[in-house]
Give the backbone structure.
Amino acid sequence: MPAPALNSVAWFEIGTDQPEGVKQFYGQLFDWSFQLNTNTPGVNYHAVVTPGAQQPTGGVWESEGNFPDYAVFYVLVQDVAATVERAEELGGKVLMAPTTDAAGLTFARLEDSTGHNFGVFSAPAP
């Protein structure tokens, strides 16, 4: 499976305080499977593997009631910090500053100039 192209939507995330219900619903509806991801300490995150995919393409983040439920897409970028800076220049806002997990994945959450939430991420060099 080829890697996603830069500047394309390459990940999605569902944040919920009902992770078992979300996993059951989407698992039954789309035949998704889920793998516990422990790369970010203190975060309960389940990677989503869709039928035919060789690797996860999304995730379910257990909010534990700490924020409203959401679904958001992430765009693969070359440089998260540079993209965040450019988004701010264009009137966007940073909702979650760039963060790097134990596997070297860097991600950030943004709000566009019209109020829509989205994320950006970059993968570590192979």
In short: The two ends are 15 Å apart (CA to CA). The mean pLDDT is 93. Residues 19-30 form the longest helix (12 residues). DSSP finds two helices and eight strands in the chain.
